[in-house]
Specification:
The protein has 236 residues and is an alpha/beta fold. The protein folds into two domains: 8-189, Ribonuclease E inhibitor RraA/RraA-like (Glucose Oxidase, domain 1, 3-Layer(bba) Sandwich), CATH 3.50.30.40; 193-235, no CATH class. The chain has helices at 8-15, 19-28, 63-70, 77-84, 106-115, 129-134, 190-212, 225-235; strands at 40-41, 49-60, 89-94, 98-102, 119-121, 124-125, 139-141, 153-158, 162-164, 167-169, 174-178, 181-185. The strands form three sheets. Strands 1, 2, 3, 5, 7, 8, 11 and 12 form an eight-stranded mixed beta sheet that branches. A two-stranded parallel sheet has the order 4-6. Strand 11 and strand 12 form a beta hairpin. The longest helix is centred in the last third of the chain and has 23 residues, at 190-212. The chain is elongated, with a radius of gyration of 20 Å. The chain starts with 7 loop residues before the first helix and ends with a helix.
């Protein structure tokens, strides 16, 4: 798998926009299922990230397939993923929202952080939550689960479309995380969404200032023609 790096300028722009603003911009453009509801950051201090999706799909364990991996007769796709994921990418899992297992702990998180991986976004748990949070790697998960993934799931495919918390993620999609959670942006729409979300954020900053100054809610939010005219005048 050859990753296509995200344009640094686009990455920097997305990093300044809050996730709720991005999901609102996506919703307005027909992408109504973009928020990975249920996942939370291990550390709010290390929640902000922007990266492209490197996907892993884990199936319910079947004993003969697990035995083949353990005996070296079949590839260990979890290990392959850790080797393949590139700097700037986000490891995204499809584990069937199995919150009682984990595929990541302190050692792997440390390795990925040193490698320059942007984040882990997993619909499973995490082992060693305190130690993983201390690595500084942004991690979004279903909570603490110090039980190895193969107890229930076996990585069966890499670089494929996945379902993470009910959201379809394609390899290379752009993921943005902050303390609100994670938004998934179709790669082809990333620049358009950045433009729209940035414009929305600037307008809302203006509206917020007016509300703080005592403006009535009606006519301010949502803005009426007079408020929009005042905003346009301010922008020049």
């Amino acid at each position: 798998m050859t990753p296509t790096p995200l344009d640094p300028a686009l990455r920097a722009r997305l990093a300044e926009i809050a996730v709720p603003t991005l999901t609102a911009a996506l919703y307005a453009r027909g992408i109504r299922n973009s928020f990975l509801a249920g996942l939370a950051p291990l550390s709010k201090a290390h929640a902000r990230f922007v990266g492209t999706a490197y996907t892993m799909r884990a199936l319910p364990v079947r004993e003969d397939l697990l035995a083949a991996v353990n005996e070296g007769k079949a590839p260990n796709l979890h290990r392959r993923a850790m080797a393949e994921v590139a700097p700037g990418e986000v490891v995204v899992t499809d584990c069937g929202a199995s919150g009682r297992i984990s595929f990541f702990g302190e050692l792997i998180a440390t390795f990925l952080a040193r490698k320059g991986v942007a984040a882990i976004v997993t619909d499973a748990g995490i082992a060693d939550v305190g130690d993983v949070a201390a690595t500084g790697l942004p991690v979004f998960c279903l909570g603490s689960a110090p039980i190895p993934g193969p107890a229930r799931r076996l990585v069966g495919d890499l670089g494929c479309p996945v379902d993470c918390m009910g959201v379809t993620i394609m390899p290379g999609d752009v993921l943005v995380g902050d303390e609100n959670g994670v938004a998934a942006i179709p790669r082809a729409m990333a620049a358009e969404i950045a433009d729209a979300a940035q414009a929305k954020a600037e307008l809302e900053e203006f509206l917020l200032a007016r509300l703080k100054d005592g403006a009535p809610l009606d006519g301010t939010y949502p803005p009426d023609a007079a408020t929009l005219a005042a905003y346009a005048a301010r922008k020049g």
